Amino acid sequence: MIELEWLRLYRVQLALRTPFRSAESVQRKKDTYLIQLEASDGATGWSEISAQTDPSYWPETVATCLEIIEHHLVAQLRRGFASAYEIHDALVAVKGNQMARASIEMAFFDLAARTTGVGLWYLLGAAPERTHVPAGVSLSLNENVADLIADLTASRAAGYRHVKIKIAPHHDTILAALTDYQDPSGHRIMDTLVLDANASYASTNRGDLASVDNLGVALLEQPLGEHDFVGHAELARHLRTPIGLDESIAGVDDVMTALQLGMRPTINLKPSRVGGYVESLRIIERCQREGLHLRIGGMLETGIGRAHNLALASHAAFDRVGDLAASDHYFAKDITPAFALEPDGTIARPDGTGLGVVPDSAWLAEVPCREIRIRY
């Protein structure tokens, strides 16, 4: 039985090496909070709030997550939990607010794994032999075609297994540049490219996506709005390019909706976006049963969030390269030991119990911390 004593919030402000732009926003730094749960025996678990500071990608923000955690979720923690899975049932009493719930649930999973002396990946049913996860990198939306091509070439040279490129309506020069792109190695690369529209197109823009279909890329991710399942299903019937869903997937029910409409989408699974690991495992089970492709997503996480994603992405169900880049691609200095890109285009899953990493102690001593007593 695990009884929680404290929840601590550590402020994180990490400047990005370069601004990261998508169809809906520009991020210049990672501004969030780490979550530390401490049990009555002193054991701890870590996670982070993955939300952005604005609601352009997802309805939740860092500020709303803090409000929900302090005023609603902490009250659900004032009892003992026999397993990591039990905490999910307590937290779903708070409707919606998946990223706020995930920040606590995922920290509890880390705590439970450390308490039982196993790696988090083991608790998630991941593959013991999958010690290294194929790495992919996401490139910012860039109107400067020369810079975009330079970034693409550098990513290929670094060894990334795939590259995701952000696109948006009225940026036809990006698609034109990709049509003419010649990889210096002479290898075909279109089947290693993912184009991510971040829900920026409308169903009436179907003609604008015809040029995407001619490229032969591996995946077109979330072209339409997050609630437009019918539009995505219709689009999938007209395009040869496989369609992926990201923002549309808030839980396993959304996967079922897509299936019932005749889609066979590749699912971009971000555990924080679906409320944590329990719902993530339900989505994994459904994807395996239906034969759907699965890839891990990213939210420009710190080393703590990256370690969580690596643990989940080492599950055998993830058969497509996800958005897992090396730490130094985004940050000059992270708050954990850096995750490096291996020569074979993979990133090592952390060893040890739980996440296998903790925040740097010197960094923790310097940043603001807010403590919330759970047990009274």
TrEMBL record:
Keywords in alphabetical order: Lyase, Magnesium, Metal-binding
Entry keyword annotation includes Secreted: no
Cofactor(s) annotated in UniProt: a divalent metal cation
Pfam families given in the database record: MR_MLE_C, MR_MLE_N
This protein's record includes keyword Lyase: yes
Domain of life: Bacteria
E.C. code: 4.2.1.113
InterPro entries (alphabetical): Enolase-like_C_sf, Enolase-like_N, Enolase_C-like, Mandelate_racemase_C, Mandelate_racemase_N_dom, OSBS/NAAAR
SUPFAM superfamilies in the cross-refs: Enolase C-terminal domain-like, Enolase N-terminal domain-like
Main enzyme class: lyase
Domain Mandelate racemase/muconate lactonizing enzyme C-terminal per the UniProt entry, residue ranges: 146-242
GO molecular function terms listed in the Swiss-Prot or TrEMBL record: O-succinylbenzoate synthase activity
Record-linked SMART domains: MR_MLE
Cited PANTHER family: O-SUCCINYLBENZOATE SYNTHASE (PTHR48073:SF5), O-SUCCINYLBENZOATE SYNTHASE-RELATED (PTHR48073)
Name of the protein this chain belongs to: o-succinylbenzoate synthase
UniProt organism field: Ferrimicrobium acidiphilum
Source taxonomy: Bacteria, Bacillati, Actinomycetota, Acidimicrobiia, Acidimicrobiales
